[in-house]
Amino acid sequence: MKRVVLALCAAVCAAASMPAAAQFQKPEDAIKYRKAAFTLMGTHMGRLGAMAQGKAPFDAKAAEYNATVLSAVYHLPYAAFGDDTKTGDTRAKPEVWTKAADFKKKADDMRVAVDKLVTASKAGTLDALKVAVGDTGKTCKACHDDYRKE
Ligand code: HEC
Question: What whole-number distance in Å separates Cα of residue 114 and Cα of residue 106?
Fold first, then answer.
């Protein structure tokens, strides 16, 4: 029994020191993970968008909270696009892998926009929020247009 536990620990501990992309047991797990992370981004971006478009009342604290959550999770999906995750229950296009440098650039553009959104949300005004939400939304769309199937 003790040996089994040790062997298990060795496997788990080795996994923990590997790069993020290698941490998933199965390709399906990685796909689920990245979709879950994008779902979180979509939820919090959606709340910001509703405020920016006047569909929800402007609430400076909520805006800052949503922007901060976005910036806390925006790294997550990109660790889950390993080579073994090209097929399955996914809308990712093959170009994610064949044009990897551009895909990464679009992810970086989004992070820069979200960082500005966090700053804008701290200003506490609807006008600042509107501009930053619009700019961030463009970076989401730019990547989806090229790398996500409808
Ligand atoms: C660098 C590319 C890229 C950027 C930037 C990007 N996405 Fe995506 N997004 C994808 C890809 C690829 C998928 C498809 C993932 C899959 O099906 O495996 C996706 C899927 C999604 C989904 C669907 C998740 C699901 O459950 O299927 C949502 C929601 C989403 N993204 C929201 C956002 C939001 C909001 C932003 C901007 C804040 C954003 N994305 C920025 C590439 C990107």
Answer: 12
What would the two tokens of residue 47 be? 């709340």
Please say whether the beta carbons of 80 and 66 come within 8 A: no
Does the Cβ of 27 fall within 6 Å of ligand 1? no
CA distance 60 to 105: 30
Tell me the whole-structure pTM to 2 decimals.
0.88
Ligand 1 centroid distance, CA of 136 (Å): 13
Q: Tens digits of per-residue pLDDT, 91-126?
A: 999 999 999 999 999 999 999 999 999 999 999 999
Q: Note the pLDDT tens digit of each residue in 7-18.
A: 554 555 444 445
Asked whether 117 and 48 are in contact (CB, 8 A), the reply is: yes
Predicted local distance difference test score (pLDDT) of residue 23 = 87
Asked whether 28 and 22 are in contact (CB, 8 A), the reply is no
Most ligand 1 atoms within 8 A of CB, residue of 40, 68, 144, 150 to mutate: 144
For the Cβ of 47 lying below 6 angstroms from any atom of ligand 1, the answer is no
